[in-house]
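Predict both folds.
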Amino acid sequence: MSQIREMSEREYFACVGRRPGMFVGTASSFHQLTAFLTGYDQHAIRHGGQGLTGWHEWLVARRGRSCNHAWPGQVLHIALPEGWNNIADLPSKDEKHAIKVLFQLLDEFAAGREASPGPQNSD
């Protein structure tokens, strides 16, 4: 019998990024994807994982500026530096770009975690 290897967090994020509609019902909703990832984060933490712990702080450091926005707003600041009106109703072009940037940032964040595992990442 063969063993199934557990997917890393980075691999999971890449999987969601390749087929977001499979996870949230529509391939182009930044708002729904961030809600999905917030649920993922809460589930992971509840079950002893890291989830997205440190993600907000990493985004603020990456951006080089702080503001009162939660992490979805931080991602939008990076993806759409000229601003936006309504996170739940972005123009299609902005929505697609924000989703692309979201998953690029998640990959960088997860790669950094893999490169320097903390106490919760080591076996």
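Second protein follows, with its predicted structure tokens after the sequence.
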Amino acid sequence: MTEISRPIYVLLLPAVQLLDCAGPSQVFYEASLQGAGYQLQFCGIDSSVVSAQGLVLQTQSGLVELQSEATILIPGVQLDAYANQAQPIDPAIIQWLQTAAALGCRIAAICSGAFVLGEAGLLDQRACTTHWSAIELLQQRYPKAHVRANVLYLQAGQIITSAGISTGIDLALALVEQDYGSLIVAKIARQLVLYLRRSGQQAQHSIYLQYRNHLHLGVHRAQDYLAEHVSKAISLEQLADIAKLSVRSLNRAFRASIGLTPIGYQQQLRLELAATLLNNPAWSIEQVAQQVGFSDARHFRRLWQRNFGTTPTQHRHHQEPVSC
């Protein structure tokens, strides 16, 4: 994994909700353990804040000097503070966020953190969401925003909002996927013992995530190995050793957990990689088949036809841009 510094500035406000803060922070921390370049920094106007649950949190700095590659996280706070406008937002925070937006920073708000974005004018003419109990209030308070219900999170350019509480984790996983791909997200979800969820508006595109909504450790081990060695010839006996199961138990566990055999899952991985390689017109169908682990291009063509209802050649022609 290419090491690129990606600062994550977590803005701590009075009455911050602990899970809104801790959940996404844990995702980025786990990603850094997997080699991602995230650097968490907790900042704010005050040197310490008291969470909505009464825990005192220490900030590491004031409002830091911004970098364009940074991501700002705004965890939600106790909702009635915004509902009654009893907790005004410091103008310095508003200016800091506006500067961040102008620089092109990615800004993600969890739950009622969307109200902070609204105060900064960053929801104007943007699709956004918040906790279900505050949807109407957010729209009323910021009439230029396009507030939507019944979604986990929404991204409108560099501004991302989530429905709150545990959905901040989904938002963070989506950002990690943008930065580093699906495989690392699957590993993080496994480490955190999470079921992967997606936005209600976002289709499940990646095979790396599509079959990860289970908790079977042996199947996860086998999936990790297959994903990291897509083109390698791997026997069921080898895969069973990696999963620490017998061949019979491995087949049963795969079917019960993801509805596919190990071979079927490997084929899906290879087809997804092939779909990417087919975008290179310099490679023949035979070369693509060989690169993803098929020794017989005819077998590759049959599998592709069975899965997608078209041929690899037809897929390639469909993807090619039309010249004007």
